[in-house]
Structure formats: C-alpha cells, structure tokens
Amino acid sequence: MKLIVFCLLAATVIFCFYYFLLGLMHLESLLLSGAILFTIIFLMVRLLTWHRHNKE
Question: φ, ψ for residue 28 (rounded to 5)?
Fold first, then answer.
C-alpha cells in the first residue's frame, strides 16, 4: 500500500514541477503552483519517514 501511494505522489510531484515551471514563466500563478509543489513534497517526505509504532 505504501508503495502505491509513493508512486502516486511521485507522479504528482512530476506534474506539479512542470506546473511550477509555468509559474516561473508567469503563465500560471506562482503562489499557487509553489504551494501545491511544497505540499506534495512535504507529504512524500512525511510518508517516507512515517513509522507505525507497535503497541504490544
């Protein structure tokens, strides 16, 4: 399950990076594209560093 979510986030990061490049060229909102890219990267890092604690 974690691998599927990671692959979806990686594909979303690629899409958001190109959207961010459009923002740098002033074709889209830089604030919106930067916020979306930051959020997706934050979620990806959070997913990679998240450890489920076993309470036994």
Answer: -135, 175
Measured over the CA atoms of residue 31, residue 37, residue 39 and residue 42, the dihedral's sign is negative
Confidence of residue 55 (pLDDT cuts 50, 70, 90): low
Contact between residue 32 and residue 23 where contact means Cβ atoms under 8 Å apart: yes
The token pair at 13 is 């990061």
Rounded Cα–Cα distance for residues 34 and 13 (Å): 11
Closest CA to 33 of 20, 17, 14: 20
Q: Which tens digit of pLDDT belongs to each residue from 1-12? A: 788 988 999 999
